[in-house]
Design brief:
alpha+beta, Pnp Oxidase, Chain A, nine-stranded antiparallel sheet
Length: about 150
């Protein structure tokens, strides 16, 4: 494996389609997938009440990882970040995050002109912002055949 620069890891975070958020819940690791967007030097996502929010409230230190995987070659690049999560209370910042999420995922969400009702905030009570205190990255690297790359079964 090879280390990536912070800039390379940031590019993976910005371009990533989804990530996994790691929190500590009831004294043990709890990891869930998230749709997210990078705003300035922070990561934002929407969520509702439940175990994830309870864990963030109890211990706001979190980690996030996203991976760019090439199924043709078996190569991968991952970006990892650690930071402090907080609920966005400022309505302008909250709207900025929601707008950015809707823009990033507009092709997945579908058209607001479709036959079903379009409710972008339905079911998501909170918008959470995670500071990017540390960002690192790794790649499967070169020098290995696709079947021998670390991290590949």
């Amino acid at each position: 494996m090879e280390d990536l620069s912070r800039d390379q890891a940031m590019r993976i975070l910005v371009d990533g389609e989804f990530a996994h958020l790691g929190v500590v819940s009831n004294g043990e690791p709890y990891v869930t997938p998230i749709s997210y967007v990078v705003l300035d030097d922070a990561l934002a996502f929407r969520t509702g009440p439940g175990r994830r929010m309870d864990a963030i409230r109890a211990n706001p230190r979190v980690s996030v990882v996203t991976t760019d995987y090439d199924s043709a070659s078996g190569g991968w690049r991952s970006a990892m970040m650690w930071g402090t999560a907080s609920i966005i209370e400022n309505s302008d910042r909250k709207q900025e995050a929601v707008d950015a999420l809707l823009k990033k995922y507009r092709d997945i969400i579908g058209s607001p002109l479709s036959f079903s009702a379009f409710e972008p905030l339905a079911g998501f009570t909170f918008v959470v912002c995670v500071s990017m205190d540390e960002v690192t990255g790794r790649t499967s690297g070169g020098g290995f055949s696709p079947t021998l790359r670390p991290g590949r079964l």
